[in-house]
Design a protein that fits this description.
Length: 385
């Protein structure tokens, strides 16, 4: 089997690369400009705020039951605002699909809680150990199922992405990786991440085009080590650059392949743009909160700590208005930050452009089980590859 180094020296790959980073660092040949096309993101912060505000309210009113439909709405908007070659992406998942997974996941955890209530107090520690062990066991299912669902329910020009990985294979890969990560107290984590990422990417395709990932654990380890040290030394001012380095690591090590022809993605994200965008994002999040806290303090001071408002109609109106303002102050900056970040990432991803995108073949796979997707949310596993 050819090694990654053999792959990187393949002349067919050199022709599809424009930037002098990662996979293309050692290539002397500069490809034509037509070889790469940039993604575009057209999302609007105020519109996204309206979507998340309405869906957050519906989720609260329904005691969380509306959450799967809210998540489907978010994704449909974000996917549909992302464009490649004048065509938008589409998220085809539904709230009902995700609600079924939602019920299964929460039924499992409620069953564990019910079992715990039936056991004597002396068994509680054992049950807690079993609970945390089950979390570790569920992680590979969450990653696999979450990735498969999101990929297979995404389409472009009516062509669905597909994932042909096997859960058994992924579990066999995951178990030794997580054990090595635990034994090494987390030092092995970058190698684990890269191996999992390679499996997920390597089994993902759209039509005849197959994705692959060629990153190395040692490179990610160095990025994490340097990023962690410099973030502390610079009082966290290096964090935007660290995020940029991780982003570039993923993009520059991802390829598309059709038969013998391989082409690499390229990230054009630079330190300056990443730093300005992410620092401004922090200000957008925290300045309104600071102003809200100051305003709340002044209002309470004017009305004598709230004693003058207690039980009055004016007090009720002020309380409701305060809750709405707080709600808006929390969500509006979040919407601006998310849209700004999405636009930064999308505008700096250059996709191989010399494939026949007009004649992609439809995948015959149809996967609608969102259980793993819901589980990844519950376990807070970010599929941010």
């Amino acid at each position: 089997m050819a090694s990654v180094d053999d792959f990187l020296n393949d002349d067919s790959l050199k022709k599809g690369i424009q930037s002098d980073t990662s996979l293309n660092a050692n290539f002397g040949e500069k490809p034509p400009a037509r070889a790469l096309a940039t993604l575009s993101f057209y999302g609007e912060a105020l519109r996204f705020f309206g979507i998340i505000a309405l869906n957050a309210l519906l989720t609260i009113i329904s005691l969380g039951l509306y959450y799967p439909w809210a998540k489907a709405t978010y994704r449909k908007y974000l996917w549909n605002e992302t464009e490649f070659k004048d065509s938008r992406f589409v998220f085809n998942g539904t709230g009902l699909e995700m609600f079924k997974g939602f019920v299964i996941v929460y039924a499992f955890f409620l069953a564990l809680l019910f079992l715990g209530s039936l056991l004597p107090p002396t068994w509680i520690l054992g049950l807690m150990g079993l609970f945390y062990l089950s979390m570790i066991v569920l992680i590979p299912f969450a990653i696999y199922g979450g990735w498969r669902y999101r990929v297979s329910r995404t389409s472009w020009r009516g062509i669905f992405f597909s994932f042909d990985g096997k859960l058994g294979e992924f579990i066999k890969l995951f178990i030794p990786q997580i054990l090595l990560t635990i034994i090494t107290l987390g030092i092995y984590a970058p190698w684990m991440r890269v191996k999992l990422q390679k499996y997920l990417f390597g089994h993902t395709s759209i039509g005849d085009l197959k994705f692959d990932f060629h990153g190395k654990g040692i490179d990610l380890f160095v990025i994490n080590l340097v990023g962690g040290l410099l973030s502390v030394i610079t009082l966290y001012l290096y964090i935007p650059i660290y995020i940029k380095e991780r982003f570039n690591f993923t993009i520059n090590n991802t390829t598309l392949q059709d038969g013998e022809k391989r082409r690499a993605f390229v990230s054009t994200l630079e330190n300056g743009e990443a730093w300005v965008t992410l620092v401004v994002n922090v200000l957008i999040m925290f300045v309104p909160m600071l102003l809200l806290a100051t305003g709340s303090f002044l209002v309470m001071d004017i009305f004598g700590g709230g004693a003058m408002l207690g039980g009055s109609v004016v007090g009720s109106i002020v309380s409701i208005a305060s809750s709405l303002v707080t709600f808006a102050v929390l969500l509006l900056p979040m919407a601006f930050v998310y849209i700004r970040t999405m636009r930064m990432y999308a505008s700096n991803i250059e996709v191989p452009d010399d494939f026949d995108y007009d004649n992609l073949k439809q995948s015959d796979k149809d996967y609608r089980d969102a259980t793993g997707d819901e589980l990844s949310d519950v376990l807070d596993i970010g599929l941010d590859f």
